[in-house]
Design goal:
Number of strands: 11
Order of helices and strands: HEHEHEEHEHEEEEHEEH
Number of domains: 2
CATH topology of the largest domain: Rossmann fold
Strand order of the largest sheet: 3-2-1-4-5-11-10
Oligomer: single chain
CATH architecture of the largest domain: 3-Layer(aba) Sandwich
Radius of gyration: 22 Å
Structural class: alpha/beta
Number of helices: 7
Strand content: 25-35%
Shape: globular
Bound molecules: S-adenosylmethionine
CATH superfamily of the largest domain: Vaccinia Virus protein VP39
Largest sheet: 7 strands, mixed
């Protein structure tokens, strides 16, 4: 069973309301135009931002979560385009704002995957676009040591257990309702390592970095302008052309010598 399939019907009921409101308040001033909610889950954030922007696309790897999200959006008369997508694969559209909030990149199994998901999200920004993402703090993950809780759900009691793995910055959650079980792992990646991914890119500007009780929230902007992007495209194409011509000439030259 996919990690969130068991949680889909109860995901929003177990959400920390204060955290959600704090996050929404923090990101609201940055919302504009066409928005993608990456790893949208049951669509809580996608639905909350939809009235303030031009369009919302929302994707997730788990189709059960997306089914729940679709029903909730229809129930609220909101037009949101939901689709299945693994964040480790490239996206084929660009947005003014990409959201990867409330524990999305934390699901990457290692830093190489984290980097892939992060770069795909950056590549999905239009010129001037903003990526809003969060990363769980390691000191928060550590609070899951020997964690156990039972939550009442419509489908019976849900037993939620958590264990810390190897480095103490990784937690494995297991969920059980009757004989159905699922598990998922979340990792905290150090801020230093994450910031290194975009620190040297002169086209990336950090608009805001906010520390919450359990996570760090970043808003980073792709400052490249449309004209510059065009130039890079043509300049890149021109060099490829020159290199190709050089290679062909070289081959012809070798043939003549032979
Ligand atoms: C904690 S939930 C967050 C949901 C949502 N962002 C919100 O605001 O409520 C994490 C979501 O990330 C999704 N997810 C995990 N791995 C993913 C992947 N590789 N690609 C896309 N989504 C993924 C899960 O299915 C889950 O719905």
């Amino acid at each position: 069973m996919k990690p969130y399939t068991l949680l889909a019907p109860i995901y929003e009921a177990s959400m920390d309301d204060a955290l959600f409101k704090q996050l929404l308040y923090t990101i609201k001033p940055y919302l504009k135009g066409d928005v993608l909610d990456l790893g949208c889950g049951s669509g809580l954030m996608a639905r909350a931002v939809a009235p303030d922007v031009d369009s919302v696309d929302a994707c997730d790897i788990d189709s059960t979560m997306l089914e729940t999200a679709k029903k909730k959006a229809e129930g609220e008369n909101l037009t949101i385009n939901f689709f299945v997508h693994d964040m480790h694969d490239a996206l084929d559209k660009q947005y003014n704002v990409v959201l990867a909030t409330l524990d999305v990149f934390n699901h990457s199994p290692d830093f190489d995957h984290f980097k892939k998901a992060f770069m795909n999200a950056l590549d999905a920004l239009k010129p001037g676009g903003i990526l809003i993402f969060d990363i769980l703090r390691c000191d928060f993950i550590k609070t899951y040591k020997n964690f156990e809780e039972t939550i009442d759900t419509n489908e019976g009691p849900l037993l939620w257990k958590a264990n810390l793995l190897d480095d103490d910055c990784t937690v494995k959650h297991t969920f059980e309702i009757g004989d159905r079980q699922s598990s998922l792992t979340e990792r905290s990646y150090s801020e230093k390592k994450v910031v290194k991914l975009f620190k040297k890119d002169k086209n990336i500007q950090v608009l805001k970095r906010e520390i919450f009780e359990d996570r760090m929230v970043f808003m980073i902007k792709n400052t490249i302008k449309m004209q510059e992007k065009f130039c890079i495209f043509f300049y890149g194409g021109f060099w490829t052309y020159l290199e190709l011509m050089h290679a062909i000439q070289f081959d012809l030259h070798s043939l003549v010598i032979l």
